[in-house]
Design a protein that fits this description.
By secondary structure, the protein is an alpha/beta fold. Helices cover about 40% and strands about 20% of the residues.
Length: about 350
Amino acid sequence: MAKARVLVVDDSVVCRRLVASILGESEGVEVVGTAPDGRIALDKVRQLAPDVVVLDIEMPEMDGLTALAELRRTHPAVKVVMFSVLTGRGAAATLDALALGAADYATKPAAAGDHADAVRAVREQLVPKVIALAARAPAASALPPPAPPAPSAEPQVVAIAASTGGPDALPELLSALPRGFPVPVLVVQHMPPVFTRLFARRLDDRLSLTVAEAADGMELEGGKVYLAPGDYHLEVHRGHAVLHRAPPVHSCRPAADVLFRTVAEEYGPAAVAVVLSGMGRDGCAGASEIRRRGGRVFAQDPQSCAVFGMPRHVVEAGLAELVAPPARLGAEIRRLVLAGARR
């Protein structure tokens, strides 16, 4: 397998060297160059043809957002991972970057932090994302056929799992759901706390549905989207949201498997689960439980995924009855739910 060719862009010499060194030592990664600002980075992308660019946000000459917008125009196939600090300002800028077409982000270690912690953060957060983003999605013909449709039941809830690529896929899917959509929508998007709050606000501004972070004890209502807060698992019990901080599942909190299992228990055949773009296998075990109880399971297709990881496990396990781009998934969910509401 060819190595992932990576360009590291950061105005800090220390950070640039640290990231380049750790990436360069990682199996499956080749650091083809570095750059101290966006303008030089654009030149190096033309010269070096990287698969992935690790891009800082705040830089002199040309900042990361400006460079990203130009990269999406001139080199749309290059995947970009934003590298930002975990602050309100950094989170807002990162969400701007995701809206502009960045594939993912990683949290930048604090400048005054411990060196060992910084090394660990880069190895655990950044390296797997770079490798996953550089991987080629399988052809649709290489996947097993869709699962047979679940027994017909009137849907009462939609539960969605998303990770890398989710901030792009979620608005596409949710835009297909009309104002007055009669069932609640529950979402686990792998994000830290500051990010989920801002992301919920942005979705709320953009969509016809009401979007908010879920709160413990909140009653679940139709026409509303409930986003699991960062660092909290989201469950459903007797039509209410339950939040807790049990240990991470698949290194994730929130985890889709936690949500899906309680959705399966609460709604049985009236549940619709969707697994969107993301790394790892979170959502597969929970989707299996939803399917076992007669619910429906959909998955995003490889061609539209930033990373065909989470959906791939669901598809290869024979759980997904529909594998399609987010807009089509949303249209099918709308059809199923509104048809059931008219009965």
